[in-house]
């Protein structure tokens, strides 16, 4: 009997330990050893990320859904996201209303030329501020930062007078000339990016090149500029997208003879339907008849920079990490 009781006691102890291990394993699975590796915390993180992703993607999803809706779907309150039938006529109307080939050529020329000039001028300026010694270097850097902080609305009237006196108003030169001198759209920010990148490079490279007799120009173009490829990619993409999307500056300095896509989008509704539709839209509080073409026009405008980003995403991410922008 004593042996049987001992065996029962051992069995009870074994089951208790087994249950305790299972409980510990279950607790480890749900809560985790640390705060971030438990299933419960992962569910909370995924839930928050899903909400944030939806907030960012919701305008894009609305645009994609609306641009393929017919007028009937836009008026029908039952139809929210998925149209009853895909209506691609909106894309055709937007293409025609935007005068897409001409507006695309104008926008591409401004964005591409200005981005290339801005990368070159900002790289040279950033290197000079990072590595060279010259009188007034600190003051120059402070002025660059101040120019970054000044809103463009404060400088639009003086710039308008300067461009008018130079005879370049209503031409792409109003954007190309500042880009050549590193003061284009957000040029100060790009100078700071290049300066920070060159500051992180080891001085041993330059010292070795100087011992071999390399001049400052050869040092920059042969050694430092190739190393700055990540910063060049980041600055070029940022500059291209900002020039592509700008609206305020073209509305001030360009007339109807030379309009980029951002200005054409604002005129799309009137271009398609005239004042008659505007009166209708004011009467009903919205304009369902042109909501589809307007969303299709927005899609046609964002598609080229979106495609460039998708093709260069790997280099862009690498450039962000290596250019010091994360720190």
TrEMBL record:
Keywords: Cell membrane, Membrane, Transmembrane, Transmembrane helix, Transport. Gene3D superfamilies: MetI-like (1.10.3720.10). It is a multi-pass membrane protein. It holds the Pfam family BPD_transp_1. Residues 104-312 form the ABC transmembrane type-1 domain. InterPro entries: MetI-like (IPR000515), MetI-like_sf (IPR035906). It comes from the Bacteria. It is found in: Cell membrane. One of its GO terms (cellular component) is plasma membrane. This is ABC transporter permease. It comes from Cohnella abietis.
